[in-house]
Amino acid sequence: MRDTIKTYTSGFRAFTPDARRFLLLTFLMSFAQSVFGLVFNLYVLKLGYTRDFLGILGAIPSLTLAALAVPLAIFCGSFAARKSLLASLAFSFAAMGGMAVFTSRGPLMFFALLSGAAGALFAITAMPLMARCSPEKERQNLFSFQFAVSMAAAFAGNLASGWLTGFWASAFSLGDESAAAYRATMLAACALLLAAGLPAGKITEASAAADRRTGAAFSALALGPALLVMAPQFIIAFGAGMIMPYLNIFFKSGFDLHIASLGFFMALMPLAMAAGGLIGPWLVTRAGRVRAIITFQSLSIPFLATMGFSGLLLPTMLAAFVRTMLMNASWPVYSVFMLSHFPAPQHQAASALYTAGWNLAGAASSRLSGRLQMDFGFTLPFLITITCYSAATLLLSRRFLREDDKKAVTLTAIKEELE
Questions:
Q1: Is 0.90 surpassed by the pTM of this model?
Q2: Cβ distance 327 to 277 under 8 Å?
Q3: DSSP class of residue 176?
Q4: Are 366 and 55 in contact (CB under 8 A)?
Q5: How far apart are CA 223 and CA 356, in angstroms?
Q6: What pLDDT shows up at residue 390?
Q7: What residues make up the domain containing 156?
Q8: CA 419 to CA 406: how far, in whole Å?
Q9: 3-state class of 207 per DSSP?
Q10: 214 confidence band (pLDDT: 50, 70, 90)
Q11: Among 55, 125, 77, CA closest to 371
Q12: What is the pLDDT of residues 5-33, one digit of tens each?
């Protein structure tokens, strides 16, 4: 255990100044967005809207992100990463503030669209920036650290959101479950988001596409092989969209939790993700990237089933924690695995394509889930998610497992030659 801690500590010290600034930006942004996100779905339902409309609102940001990822990658390819990140934060601030202030359908849908634009700018900048800020030997550590930091911030944000909502309700006699108490928490999240502008403004790394040939990178991208590499994650995205955007509704409706208790339980999910993000590099060094991804995803499926169908609070929470830790341990590992299939000049193009596909799949299933919940509750969405996770793991095993075997053979041959 002590050696593992030393490994992570030395890994953090090896990060470049820009990498550390990006980690701080990630923490502050994730914290504010988690404060906002815990209560937003509950706020929309408290306004009197149906889950069907909630499904529409949930799908709009992802659809927008999918539609804008590639065009923005081409248009913003010559922009400094700092400018793209600051623009993303500005759009996100406006979107969160607008959704907190305006209550009619049209404005809510417009600001959900603006939120998707903010997400697109951040998504097309983040992975290429981290790849450029880290040498190959440090890349897996940086991706895993960034994921763990964002999840640790989400843990703290969910806790703070529950406490804040209770505070507003008590201080201003708003009622624990009132729309006004939720709105006050959402506005506080907007103020918290402003702090993320400080580290974003200090990032000095060059443009998001230093050679300024992003369009050429897209044209040189072999679309068939690229989609094959990304297909398992797109299937995962469709399954995740069925359940994950509605976890607060799942626990609230299924177990009738108070908002403070809901905040605590929801905070456990990103804490589990943070733990998963940190154990990813450990397994990669012992089993290889593909085997690590397959192991995490396979082990998570029984816990997903327990989570969906146990009907008891404690088993559901424990299963949700373990499932979340295992499934999300594979995400930063997969990100590095995906980028390894493309040359550095194509990283931005690959990231944009992946972002578009992931969010398109997630938006479609999120929209479908809102309708299915009205007719079947969460039973059918959980079954679809289990099927998707199983199919994605099988596809990854059949298509890419041999990559680990080939690398192992190559490393063995090199060692023998050196001896």
A1: no
A2: no
A3: T
A4: yes
A5: 13
A6: 92
A7: 12-418
A8: 20
A9: strand
A10: low
A11: 55
A12: 555 556 666 777 888 888 899 999 999 99
HSE of 376, CA atoms in CB hemisphere, 13 A: 13
Sequence letter at residue 368: L
Q: Which pLDDT band holds residue 303 (cuts at 50, 70, 90)?
A: very high
d(CA 193, CA 118): 13
Q: At what angle do helices 313-339 and 247-255 cross, to 10 degrees?
A: 170
Report the distance separating Cα 296 and Cα 330, nearest Å.
6
Is 5 among the domain residues?
Answer: no
pLDDT of residue 174: 65
Contact 182, 167 (CB under 8 A): no
Question: How many domains are there within the chain?
Answer: 1
The structure tokens listed for 241 are 């969209």
Widest Cα–Cα separation across the chain = 76
The SS3 call for residue 258 is coil
- Rg over CA atoms, the chain: 21
Does residue 127 lie in a domain region? Answer: yes
**SS3 of 17-82:** HHHHHHHHHHHHHHHHHHHHHHHHHHHHHHCCCCHHHHHHHHHHHHHHHHHHHHHHHHHCCCCEHH
Report the distance separating Cα 378 and Cα 307, nearest Å: 11
Q: Say whether 339 sits in a helix, a strand or coil.
A: helix
Residue 208 lies in a domain: yes
Is the pLDDT assigned to residue 405 strictly greater than 60? no
Q: What is the mean pLDDT of residues 219-239?
A: 83
Hey, CA dihedral for 332, 271, 55, 65, is it positive or negative? negative
The helix (H) or strand (E) run that includes residue 309 is helix 289-309
Per-residue pLDDT at 7? 55
Tokens of 225: 């092989």
Kind and range of the H or E element at 101?
Answer: helix 81-101
The residue assigned the tokens 């700092």 is 82
Token pair recorded at residue 11:
């890994």
Contact 154, 160 (CB under 8 A): no
Q: What is the CATH number of the domain that holds 191?
A: 1.20.1250.20
Q: Which two tokens stand for residue 352?
A: 């944009």
Assess if residue 7 is contained within a domain: no
Three-state secondary structure call for residue 342? coil
**Which residues have C-beta within 8 Å of that of residue 244, sequence separation ≥ 6?**
none
Beta-ladder partners of 207? 80
Nearest-10 Cα torsion for 132, 123, 323, 321? 100
